[in-house]
Amino acid sequence: MKKQWWHNKVAYQIYPKSFYDTNGDGIGDLKGITAKLDYLKELGVDILWICPIFTSPMVDQGYDISDYYSINPCFGTMEDFDELLEETKKREMHILMDLVVNHCSDQHEWFQKAMKDPEGEYAKYFYIMDGNDGNPPNNWRAEFGGSCWEKVPGYENKFYFHTFAKEQPDLNWENRAVREEVYKMVNWWLEKGISGFRIDAIINIKKDLTWESLPPDCEDGTVCVFETNKRAHGIGEFLGELRDRCFQPHNALTVGEVFNTTPEQLEEFIGENGYFSTMFEFEHCLTTYTGAHWCDNSPFEFKKWRDVVLNNQVYVNDLAFEANIIENHDQSRGVSYFIPEEDYSFESVTALATVMLLLKGIPFLYQGQEIGMRNCRFDSVEMYEDISTLEQYKQAVLKGHDNRSALEVCYQYSRDNARTPMQWSGEKNAGFTTGTPWFHVNPNYKEINVKADLSSTKSVFRFYRELIALRKKPEYEDILIEGNTNPIYMEEDFVFAYERISANRNEKIIVISNYQNTKFKLRFEHSFEDVLLNNYDSLEYETGFLFLEPYQTIVFK
Q1: Which residue of 41, 338, 368, 474 has the smallest Cβ count within 10 Å?
Q2: With the C-alpha atoms ordered 318, 321, 327, 330, is the resulting torsion angle positive or negative?
Q3: Which residue segments constitute the domains of the chain, with CATH numbers given?
Q4: Alpha-carbon torsion, ordered 45, 416, 227, 231, to 10 deg
């Protein structure tokens, strides 16, 4: 695998609305990101992935874009963005924008023109079809609930298609005019000086053009739209063109949000000549998902999660370089998902950090992860903002859950858990804003915040900083950046362990975690020179055995 400029980097995702507010309007802004660049640099971050900051009605928190060339006034101005870009470059940092081109906003000029003339030129920018006597063309269910089809205003039997909310009409990538508009916009931002894109919902741009109804997966007779992706063939034509026309000429870092790919497709997507530089590996974040709705999910199982992570590493070893996450804006907090609530501690949080950040691939942190931010429990469904959460609550109630248990489901899985304001201090509103926050601050902010963490003898931030610094040490680059992953102790029920082995196989680093809340005696027959990292102050070892404290995690050379 050819070495790329981004292989030794660490990325950090920013949800700008909740990051830091500088003008007191309760909404995070671009100046707030600029103000915290030194904090991120100190952590060891090289790349900032910034969630959408484009002009938008904010029906889906900015993932419904009405103008790809302008900044949403709630975040600031283009001048503010230019300042941010300049300041990141001064610090040798990079910016990734969020590229949302499966769909746009229903307020976008293209869609507005399409609705005025559903037989005209701009109607071909979208999927507009006749229904069945006033009913939708098929039984496909949108990701946020309800039919994928919405009536064109003023027409009884004409519908437009949307994978997500009805305010997010899908763009017709079969239309070359649409693709040319996309390429023009992508190149405009790359030429402005950004380093690449995280590419939203890109696997959805190719549709099953038969538009046939499929066997339902839900009691209401509908089928999830994502199931139809399996019948859509030929996406490579679009993605290859996008790569050749935009990404490749700019040597851009591109991270695809890709679901439902087969192992055989990995090389096609992120191999040496893949469509993207890398893509997120999500399977380990979805091990509890068993049905169409959150209330159908199963309890978290450590061994299932660990096996998914490490088996995936083995598969991609010589094939590709994935983007590794613990959490992001579309998921609940990693600490709350991967660690039992009764086990929350400095040791358990740093155990999770270690086993995930030292895997092969580029780590993507999410804001607040570096201080162990957790899920937020709300007293009523009205306190939630996320449209998918509101739909999932409704479905839980329809399935027989009372208000309390339906809220518990939302507490476990809602995207809003990741969208509560960043907790900078124990001051009012967690130091996020001097005004009224746009969204609820997690009540635990007085205990969990940046200022308190940095003053603690057991600082999660400082541990993350050490972990990132270890990953970047030049003497370990052949091992921790380019080296392959070899799982060990897979027979143990609560041990997360692997070797990172250099390309010439002459050197290796061992990562071992006792991922449970009890002390454990582990038969250990590996030789080692040094302890590179330990989330405890001591190590109990005798010939042939390690005695690991609860969640004790050690990195050996």
Answers
A1: 474
A2: negative
A3: 11-101+177-462 (3.20.20.80), 109-161 (3.90.400.10), 486-556 (2.60.40.1180)
A4: -40
Q: Which of 257, 327, 370, 453 is catalytic?
A: 257
**Dihedral in degrees, nearest 10, Cα atoms 529, 493, 304, 276:** 0
- Give me the helices (H) in 211-301, please: 225-228, 235-242, 266-270
Question: Residue 210's pLDDT band (boundaries 50, 70, 90)?
Answer: very high
Rounded Cα–Cα distance for residues 497 and 488 (Å): 5
- Smallest Cα–Cα separation from 86: which of 42, 139, 33? 33
**Residue of 64, 150, 167, 200 marked active site:** 200
**Token output for 349:** 């949080």
- Does this model's pTM top 0.70? My answer is yes
200 is catalytic: yes
Q: Residue 260's pLDDT band (boundaries 50, 70, 90)?
A: low
Q: What are phi and psi of 295, to 5 degrees?
A: -70, -10
Pairing mode, if any, of strands 323-325 and 362-366? parallel
Tokens 């060339």 — which residue? 69
- Asked if residue 217 lies in contact with residue 224, where contact means CB atoms within 8 angstroms, the answer is yes
Residues in a beta bridge with 197:
97, 254
